[in-house]
Amino acid sequence: MERKTKIEAEDGRQDLLIIREFDLPLDLLFNAYVEPEIVEQWMGTKVLKLESKKHGGYQFETSDPQGNVVFRANGSIHEFVSQAKITRTFEMENTPFPVQLEFLDFEALTGETSKLTMQIIYRSVADRDNMLRLPFAQGINMAHDRLQEIVGRLNKKL
Amino acid sequence: MNLRRDVFQALADPTRRAILLLVATQTMTAGAIAANFDTARPTVSRHLQILTECELLRQKQIGRENHYFLNAGKMKEVADFLEPFRDMWDDRFNNLEAVMKNYGQRPGR
Asked: Where are the beta strands (DSSP E) in A42-99?
């Protein structure tokens, strides 16, 4: 599958860039970050609070099927310019990851397409690198589970 | 003598993999981790010891309690891990695009 998101994360830096062009007009793209009910749909998390304005606060939460909270994040909005930028902090609660600073820049490319450039700044190079490795670490677990499942099925046939 | 454990051997056990998933995004005490499993507490402690010995788990003191968390820093170069990170964001943005395309087609828009 073709991947459209670009990540720029040079070695030794404590920030990274996430860049993505969308087949959406700018107002729809920006709206996706502003409306709590919409954020819930594409981020796959529950929005406890989202005040889309300067000095607003937000909080997201994800639970497992048993109802245990497995993820919670919160932050404050520092700058909010409609159709253009959101500057905010982002903190994953109950983890060793310190709060991070995010600059989201939205722009129109054509009448029907737009682009998001997100710069995330971490407290240190090590913190950034740890965050980068997290999906890989989770992937190892899932890969092992699949391997285990396959081996289990093979063993049953022998 | 403290034998350094092989990471893949440590990952071969499903309970240990489940423990790693639990602490991937949050710190947890040994008690909180054990509460998630039907396994006896000393067995869970043994798993925690193995994971700590091979450095997949690290510990930090928060208040009076010892908290475990995933040592994602056990892995190698940043460049090797960009793909899963990028995939995660790309999946999210694909969702965003699909949701908003639907939204953009509501009547009255």
From this structure: 46-50, 57-63, 69-81, 85-92
